[in-house]
Amino acid sequence: MFDDELKGVDGFAKYKSDKKGVKIPSADEVYQPAKNGKNFMLTIDDTIQYYIQDAMQEAYDQFQPVSMTVIAADPNTMEILGMANMPTFDPNIYWETEDYGNFYNHAIRSTYEPGSTFKIVTLASAIQENLFDPGAWYVSGSIRAGGRTHWDIKRDGWGTITYLEGVKRSSNVAFVKLGYEMLGKERLKNYINLFGFSEKTGIDLPGEVLGRMNMERDIDISTVPYGYAVSVTPIQQLAAISAVANGGKLMKPQIIKEKQDPNTGKVEKVQPKVIRQVISPETAKETGKYLEQVVADQDKGTGKYAYIDGYRVAGKTGTAVKGDYSDRSKRIVSFIGYAPVDDPKIAVLVIIDEPNERDIGGGRAAAPVFKKIVSQTLKYWGVPKTDAAKKK
Fold this sequence. Notes:
single chain; 392 residues; alpha+beta; 5-stranded antiparallel beta sheet; 3-stranded antiparallel beta sheet
């Protein structure tokens, strides 16, 4: 990506010489010294990068998926702390890699239907519009909307439950009601755009692609609130959850911390860039409070396997069936979240493409990877534990 700035310019000398190669003094001698390339300091923390790859390898060996992707960032600046894909390759002997797909950076070059992790956008939008009442009741199980029937993961539902319980259980019906019935197409689409899903993030890595939204037909619009009929990139997802973590600001992801010019001694620091305010700080805080309960509630919370003793964790699981949905064993499972809730320092997205266990979801497969990475990182940073982080 930055080869032209890194490689510098070779120097050269031009002069006349005799037959023995001895330089002859001449007025048209030309000497140009070499110009060193710039030095780049990345935002990547090699310790966190190690934690990521170590936790990924464990899950990769267990679930033998098609691929895995993990990104970790500081949600306040969107500096990328670590990013990895599996399968991977050794750059020292890359020519021995048989599968070209191993060179693929899924974090920015692949799109996928996010499933329930996308519910964070619907939830935050409904809270911003004062439409979310955690204590209000609705009937779970199924709902007819947009010309089709939408089902919860437990098809007969959990009876009449509150919307807060619906969030904890990742109820599709709750989010159809919030996104399709309450917000409606135009407001929902507006918030999806505000959260950055209709544009590239602009991260300084080559080959970033753009996801897509199917929001023309009611049958599609009604599924968008729970993460279908929409495709996103992992980096877009992480930027969106970071906006909830940092008080409502969508930030540009950064991979470069600073550039140093050894020729002049000049140091150019890359400053965090706010793209826009998406939701209010109050909305962001309230959304985080509910996402924390998804993890802390060990009975109803789908994210309970991401719980870290002594730290307040907010997050959301995701399970999306691939392709035409006919083969329900082909699924992408994920977990996205951040910690600590009251002072977020790290946001992490874990994606596992086609784990080998047929019915496993993001809660059991991806959340433990998140837990291992985040717990090690907070300990490495010396972030103190708190008594407020209790299981519910």
